[in-house]
Amino acid sequence: MALRKLAAALFAAAVIATSTVGLSGTAAAHTDSANGGTGILTSEEARQPSLTAAQMKNAVVPEAAGSGSLAASLNCAYYYVCGKGGNGNRFDYTTCSTTYTLPNLVGWGSLHNNQTPGTRAHFYDVNGAWMFSIDAPDRNDVFWTPVWYVIAC
Question: Which residues, if any, are the signal sequence (predicted)?
């Protein structure tokens, strides 16, 4: 299990580095989703402080996640941020200022921030280090394996 997570984290780092730097060797600029961008923020202005040990220790662990068809579209109610991993596990969170532990999401899957416009959800790795944020209302594909925590807003 630990070896799989390590391999997945290294793969994710390589994917992120490649997508940020690109094949030309220059960093890709963030584009606003209104202008056709991805909606996932990775710039320094969106960077969040890492979670504290207390936040990780007190993270809310959701009830057992259900699994469904991987081909099914991700339905996400208004006021929620939702995600689904390649293994079928999913989450739906809405409470602000709460650190949630994600339900063992593995592989590529969907992310939909369907909260009120401009609401930003933040995602963190196993050590509580900020990985990325997404503004509402946006959707994107995410490699979930290295992502462990979310703060919905």
Answer: 1-24
